[in-house]
Design a protein that fits this description.
alpha+beta
């Protein structure tokens, strides 16, 4: 994790314990980046932001590996399996941003409802279950991970779910329940900031002009992602979310794969996790981020989703991450 974040595959990171001498990675520790021969290349001091980021990334990797192949895929964005109501219920709602309207309740279990607002489907956390007991955000979220066979999602919603679950595991359930409120999930939708569609990450996206990328004679369309390019600041960091794009396709369910980066193997291949697939090793063609092997025909797009450490710190009321 430290090498992925602060160095590269040709170097290593050594941690020098700071003033607290606690034997754990903590604020004030010195990170020394060394070449393979042991030559010091640079050093830095671990900050509060660094610690939140590292803890979040560790939980992203833990959760991605723990759920194996994840959830069944659905092109309906979100679904509660065997939860369809005999007749949809229609009711009024007020959103977190003050938006008002009517929604149709289509599916339900003890923790969640699938609602339709303006023809878009959302997974909405219930405030109370059938027995009238209050539903906590941590319990509702954990049910999705524990009972994965009861839910189905598109390719993007699991990235938002991993963000929320890793936030919960980083700051603890008390702070998470205090700040998360009534969870609302659908693809990259983010209810907590004005960007709306970043899945809770800090995301950057570059797009390409039509025909800029060609794979097997197929050209990308205008607006598809640009090719991942380290010379333009793109980096593969374990715990980040990325996107594999299929050129020439902007409408089918196979148009792209959202993926969590797990790290690089000794043979040079890269490990990713993607929903309904699980962990996969991806080979990139020489000097390019066009893929070979399992994802042949796709390319790694210039979409990078980093941890939102400012939100983590704001939600960590008891400062458990740094105390």
């Amino acid at each position: 994790m430290l090498t992925s974040r602060f160095a590269d595959t040709k170097s290593q990171v050594i941690v020098l314990d700071g003033t607290n001498q606690d034997g754990k990675i903590s604020i004030g520790d010195t990170l020394v980046v060394q070449s393979s021969s042991g030559q010091e290349l640079k050093r830095s001091t671990l900050t509060k932001d660094d610690l939140y980021e590292l803890r979040f990334r560790e939980n992203m990797l833990k959760n991605g590996l723990a759920i194996e192949t994840g959830w069944e895929f659905t092109d309906q964005l979100v679904s509660i399996k065997e939860g369809t109501l005999a007749e949809p219920e229609i009711r009024s709602f007020t959103g977190a941003n003050g938006q008002t309207g009517h929604e149709r309740v289509l599916e339900r279990n003890q923790f969640w409802e699938v609602v339709e607002r303006d023809e878009s489907r959302y997974l909405l956390m219930r405030t109370a279950n059938d027995q009238g007991q209050t539903v906590q955000a941590s319990d509702a979220l954990n049910d999705i991970f524990t009972h994965r066979d009861s839910y189905a999602f598109d390719c993007a919603s699991p990235m938002s779910l991993l963000n929320l679950k890793s936030s919960l595991d980083t700051i603890g359930q008390d702070d998470f329940n205090q700040h998360a409120g009534q969870l609302l999930l659908s693809s990259w939708f983010d209810q907590y900031d004005s960007s709306n569609f970043d899945g809770g990450y800090l995301s950057t996206v570059r797009t390409a002009e039509a025909g800029a990328i060609t794979i097997n004679g197929i050209h990308n369309l205008a607006g598809e992602t640009a090719l991942f390019d380290p010379s333009k600041g793109d980096r593969l960091i374990a715990g980040n979310a990325y996107y594999f794009d299929l050129p020439g396709d902007t409408s089918s369910s196979a148009q792209g794969w959202n993926a969590l980066y797990l790290g690089q193997n000794e043979d040079g291949s890269h490990n990713f996790w993607s929903n309904s697939i699980g962990p996969i090793a991806v080979d990139f063609t020489e000097n390019s981020y066009l893929t070979s092997g399992f994802l042949t025909g796709y390319y790694l797009g210039a979409v990078v989703s980093d941890p939102n450490t400012a939100r983590l710190q704001a939600w960590d009321s008891d400062q458990s991450v740094v105390s």
